[in-house]
Design brief:
Layout: E1 5-6, H1 21-30, E2 35-38, H2 51-55, E3 63-64, E4 67-76, E5 97-101, H3 112-122, E6 128-131, H4 143-153, E7 156-160, H5 173-187, E8 191-194, H6 207-216, H7 228-234
Parallel strand pairs: 1-2, 2-4, 4-5, 5-6, 6-7, 7-8
Antiparallel strand pairs: 3-4
């Protein structure tokens, strides 16, 4: 099966990525995607864009060269109560989705209970549809609670291709994903593959993530990237 969607990508406005949105879309097409999402970092990320940037994403066409474009943000979880660095208002009400993620530059790793509470509460925020890279060994999480809440709220848990790269700075991602995916299989919770591309050549590339899914014999019916009807329904397209 071929993955046809990538919603975790970054462009120049994230401050530490190296391609334009146009270049990313071009490689989405080259790499066989039907759906591409731009999800630059939220405003608490050093070097990240102003809220005006997200308001003006309205200028993006809905479709470019046969690729459907979705507008998003990778919001930063900023405290252990699960608050994120965006409140939906006139600047952001045109977005299609939020990814909520833990980043050490925005929130120091806490205890297992603190990290888990932050992630669980972030799932209650409007428009949060994905929990980004819940694999970082610096943030110990209670995966059973995370998976159960994801099922309750119909939120996708991301398998982040960048985290599984041998040069990744997120420790223990491979082992953490084994635990997480076993629970997703047990409770029939859907996942989404994300490239976390910071340059256009990475858009739509999930080699390391798909290798892990194959290794674990993870059911493809729980991977939304492969199912266009589910993508359309989930994101109201």
């Amino acid at each position: 099966m071929k993955a046809i969607i990538d919603l975790h990508t970054h462009a120049l406005s994230s401050g530490h990525a190296y391609s334009t949105i146009k270049e990313n879309i071009e490689y989405a097409k080259i790499n066989g995607l039907k759906y591409y999402g731009i999800s630059d970092h939220g405003i608490n990320m050093p070097g990240g864009p102003h809220l005006f940037y997200f308001q003006n994403l309205k200028v993006l066409p809905k479709e470019v060269d046969g690729v459907r474009i979705l507008k998003g943000m990778e919001a930063n979880i900023i405290d252990y109560d699960g608050n994120i660095d965006i409140v939906l208002d006139k600047y952001t009400n045109n977005l299609d989705y939020l990814i909520a993620s833990l980043h050490t530059v925005c929130l120091n790793p806490g205890t297992k209970e603190e990290n888990t509470r932050a992630t669980l509460n972030a799932m209650d925020k409007p428009l949060v549809k994905i929990i980004g890279h819940p694999d970082d060994g610096r943030y110990e999480l209670d995966y059973e609670k995370i998976v159960k809440k994801a099922k309750e709220k119909n939120i996708l848990l991301e398998v982040n291709n960048s985290s599984l790269n041998p040069e990744s700075f997120r420790p223990n991602a491979h082992e953490n994903y084994k635990k997480l995916l076993d629970l997703c299989k047990k409770y029939k919770v859907r996942i989404i593959l994300g490239s976390d591309a910071h340059i256009c050549y990475q858009v739509g590339i999930f080699d390391d993530a798909e290798k892990l899914l194959e290794e674990l014999d993870f059911p493809k019916e729980l991977v939304i990237n492969y199912h266009e009807d589910e993508i359309i329904e989930f994101f109201n397209l």
